[in-house]
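hey so u asked for the seq, here:
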Amino acid sequence: MAKKIANVSELRRHDKYERLIAVAKQHPALATAVAHPCDETSLRGVLEAFEAGLVVPILVGPTRRIEEVASRHGLDIGRFEIVDVAHSQAAASKAVELVRTGRARLLMKGSLHSDELLGAVAQRDTGLRTGRRISHVFVMDVPTHPKTLFITDAAVNIAPDLLAKRDIIQNAIDLYSALGLGTPKVAILSAVETVTPSIPSTIEAAALCKMADRGQITGGELDGPLAFDNAISPEAARIKGIHSSVAGQAEILVVPDLEAGNMLAKNLSFLSHADAAGIVLGARVPVILTSRADNVRSRMASAAVAMLLAHRQQAKEPVRA
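ran it, structure tokens below
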């Protein structure tokens, strides 16, 4: 039986992540195909996640190169299975194959480019596609903000249209629910909080809210367009005279396009000292998409989020947080 977890959003500073990782440790580690872990950062991240009891790695890449990196940096990978392939593209394809055949339950990016891994995931016949659009969510622990913030999509969909945004939102809502956080408040962001024909994202925001009213998006409370300030600040929402259950209380922030999302996430990371766990949704299994700039806590949180979601998908019942 799944164990009850304190609400992640109620915790202080980076304790939101620490609690999330602690929760994940209550569940069995999952076999994880790691595509091309051929530098110190990616290999160390795998080792840390293994030692925390989150993953059982299957390293996919050139065996000699992986072993040389491990030896050079004093990393003990003797307990890990290595599947030898020649290069990063082959590693991406083989890692996806391990998931398709059931040998792995999670997929993790190593030192290859994100496009290589996601290209293999998106292949029509050999990939991990579902009927849902693939999208990315940053699960952000901002020390100065009381809530865990989900930002989407800041890494995969460059300029999503209305139907793509519907899937992006639904993916994020489903993740929020799977982490046991309840019903999320979803803010559709733009530069202003009024529908303005000269700003297309405001029109799309209004349409997405109406789609939620008609049951085309489920499981969350939507409002938009909202500017960033009145999405997360009750005082800003009050000053602007915005009255809704979402304004000032948003937990999922849906950005107009990848550029806006990427800048927002990085601003929070570098100016507010936020940590950003990255996960790709909409495929058959969660994809752990880490960055070379990620610290240990972010990498661990990415693995924890993916692990909890995978257990939720298997159990068909919420992992309560």
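The radius of gyration is 19 Å. The domain at 8-184+251-315 is CATH 3.40.718.10 (Isopropylmalate Dehydrogenase).
lmk if thats what u needed
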